[in-house]
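Amino acid chain
________________
===
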Amino acid sequence: MRGVAAQFRHLFACAIALAAPAWATDIRSIRASQSADHVRVTMELSARPDYRLFQIANPDRLVIDVADARLAGGASPAAVGVLKGVRSGRHGKDGARIVLDLTAAVQPKTVVQAQGKFGAYRLVVDLYTQGHGEPVKSMAALAAKPRDVIVAIDAGHGGVDPGATGAGGTHEKDITLAVARDLAKLVDKQPGMHAVLTRDGDYFIPLQERYQKAREAKADLFVSIHADAYASGDARGSSVWVLSPRGATNEAARWLADRENRADLVGGVKLEDKDNTLAAVLLDLSQGATAQASDAIAKRVLRALSGIGPTHRGYVEKANFVVLRSPDVPSILVETAFITNPAEEKRLKNPAQRQKLATAILDGMRDYFEATPPPGSLFAANARRDKPRSVARRAVVKSDADAADLADDTIAARSPKS
């Protein structure tokens, strides 16, 4: 009898365990920090979240509902900037609700980032005050003070991700950071140009966050620096890559499917109030223009690199690199050389050679901006200033040609017939 009772208790305990809810996502922590123009709220998660976000006024609040999730610990962050506090609790049968109490209405921007290989994710919510990032400016305002062209420079890999390793033990992450810093210094010395580094130290940044940093900086160009690798040690040469059509299609689908990203500005146009068909057309137009600009810049950079050494192939290559997926920032990836080639590894370790690489990349970028000056930039102002001179020169040449033709006609008229 005691055996039967024990067996019953065991079965009862198992039934209770099976009946207990098993959440798909643990919200491990919530933290907040103040940046120059926004507050960032970061949630560490055990799995990719299924979430929705909406705002409530009077008082201003931002609500984040995460389906099939639980709050697994961590103290609520303290008040910072526009964020007064954070409240959390259960929502429905198996969901979690996070309420951000605000001092004013905000424009939220969200991104979900994969964290390493262990299934962890991060949900980042950036809170901008109303009016931030409005794209429309008067032509008078643009002409009054030309803006700098912003170049976002991304040093590939970093931190726990060393990238490729050369025969001499050189890590790709160290080479890319050195070249990126050299390039940033050169860019900042150019009138009308300013560099922004995605990383300026030995730490890891998720791929999606890299191009997101470029978008947040309102960059005119994103350049990711890498060093190539191959099983054979004799592969050599620089190469330049742009996003493949397949990568652009995948990113378009992700953007259109993500309600919160549709609230972001893409090419200066908000997608949140557009129906799916119109949103798809607008996004396609933005991606098409971005792809054309990326290809044009890549060709110029590759041509400049060919002037200082061999190129792996004589044309711009295409691949589905995550860092190149920005829908509205022209993006290229530069493989400076093959770090697995002992001779090229030696050159990459040479500061003078790295300076040559950085100079060539700058020359290609500057050539593009001079040929296609971004609106409101110093390049555009210089182009407008130089245009009247060009027109005047053409007018003089035409006048001289007309005079020559007139002289020929006069001579012909005076010549006796044979």
